[in-house]
Amino acid sequence: MDIIEMTRELGRAIQADDRYIAYSLAKQANDEDEQLQNLISAFNLKRMELQMEVSKPDKDNDKVQMLNEVIKSSYRRIMEHPKMMVYQSTKDAMDALMNQINTILTMCMNGLDPDEIDADAACGGDCSSCAGCH
């Protein structure tokens, strides 16, 4: 099996993982929830309205402030929606899985033994404190 086929196999394994299945179902539930989609649409419209107002040479600062408050409130309602909360937690689990996979692949590309890589190690971005890449 070549490396591309192995990657496809990894993709199939990811799609069979409980975390992916939960994420996929939560995403579908969000997409099918009319109330949530209406909240998201209203949020996006206000965000565009804010962008248009801010880009005006003679912008109305009071309107900008009001739109900012409406956007914050809309965002809060979206994120407090029960289905969005489930989606966010399943997305966080998928992101953690993908970070683990990326950590292993990156460290392998840097010559480390795949069996000795701590998949839960997080990169802080400051290479000076890391022994893994050097």
Overall description:
- With 134 residues, this protein is mainly α.
- Helix content is 74%, strand content 0%.
- Helix 2 crosses helix 5 and helix 3 runs antiparallel to helix 4.
- The chain is elongated and about 60 Å long.
- The two termini are 30 Å apart.
- The mean pLDDT is 92.
Task: Offer a quick outline of the entry.
The chain contains five helices and no strands. It is mostly helical.
Task: For the structure shown, list the relevant keywords.
mainly alpha, 0% strand, 2 domains
| Beginning-to-end CA distance, first to last residue | 30 Å
Biggest pleated sheet: none
Helical content (DSSP H or I, runs of 4+): over 70%
By DSSP, the count of extended strands is 0
- Determine the mean pLDDT: 92
Q: Any low-confidence stretches, pLDDT <50, length ≥5?
A: none
What is the count of DSSP helices, taking H or I runs of 4+ residues?
A: 5
Radius of gyration: 21 Å
List the helices and strands in order. Answer: HHHHH
How many domains?
Answer: 2
Structural class: mainly alpha
Overall geometry: elongated
